Amino acid sequence: MAREKIQYAAIGCGGMGRRHLRGMAALHKASFANMELVAACDIKQEQAELYANEAEELLGYRPRVYTDLAQMVKELPELRAADVTVESGYHHSVGKDAMEVGLHVLVEKPLAVTVRGCTLLIETARRTGKVLSTAENFRRDPMQRLAKALIQDGAIGQPRLMLQTCIGGGNRISMTIWRHMKHTASMPVDAGVHEADLLRFYQGEFKTVYGQSKLWEPIRYKGTPRPQPQTTNAPAAGPGGYYTAYRDSMPDQVEVTGDDALYAHITFESGVIAHWIDDHGAHGQRRDDRYVYGSKGSFQCSGNRIGRPITLHVDGKVLEGDDVLPLAPSYRLSPQAAELFGGERPARYDIGFPACDANLIALELYELGECIRAGAQPEVTGEEGRNDVALVYAPFESGRLGRPVTLDDMLSGRADVYQREVDEMFGLLK
Prior knowledge:
By secondary structure, this protein is of the alpha/beta class. It folds into two domains: 143 residues, Rossmann fold (3-Layer(aba) Sandwich), CATH 3.40.50; 205 residues, Dihydrodipicolinate Reductase, domain 2. Helices cover 36% and strands 22% of the residues.
């Protein structure tokens, strides 16, 4: 007998919300579906109506539309959870409000736009007894699960060095204007938090960070949008495809306020060293790669959510794809991930970004439902999400203080020169 599904509302029906809707569609079709979307809530009613229309096409039924959280909860007494995908600068306030009216929450990354914002959400979750899950999907990618298993199973010996590089962007506006503004999480925060989470997922907790951040491109331009692949359910499938309305309405150029690059030297508690570049103002050759070196070898895991196989260099041999699997015996996807990605131990996949993106979000939503049922904690808790944000901002704060900063510096507020202006704006300073 099928269990009753957890009813939830989508709060935030813009570009990221529509991507989460595709995740719900993937979960809806899966054998393990445990969530039911019953409401779409956005301060812009027309946006919520569009979302509800798309939901009807994808799910076969139309969720109710709201512009007010309190009214939605009052009219839907069986509502138990919220999927929060509003602009990053409002994650902390909307997530807090949702928990205080009785909802468990999945909050899109970054958990909040500052460390103090994250702490507010964590404290609210503790006070209300609600599940707080950070929607961080890079680590759920099967290739990242395989990479973590290679490290844990000793394929490269004792890890020593990690190189994480993301370079590109030039002076173009990336999808939305708010992704370049300090108070709504500039690109190294909004996008770089993915890389921060993978650094910690691979190597454990960070100890100290020395680095700096820069604003290389104070004026950004609309430019010509890159062509997007097509799907049957949307006019454009990639992340940019869901942001067409923003691009159509944005000015030709904008003066930005948030730093667009970070450079960091990181020491982990394990002793591993990492060099991290996350530069969204760079011109010329683009780079997006990840290397881990150990006492016996190294591996490269390049690209995210595209299924590209890992390349392993060990014992004078170069191994790729299925040849890597024997060196990662602990690598096993969950039954739910295995269903979505076609096997328990995939060494690669080729389903395209839209399907991968939807599958990973489906796993986030599924986990939320199971945590609500069991009273359990998700993999990426509020604390995990906060430490990701702390790692992102550590080079920002280190550069301004002229010294290395520790995790405790970041969590305690001793290192907050860059963030303080944002915290003051949102009333987060106690």
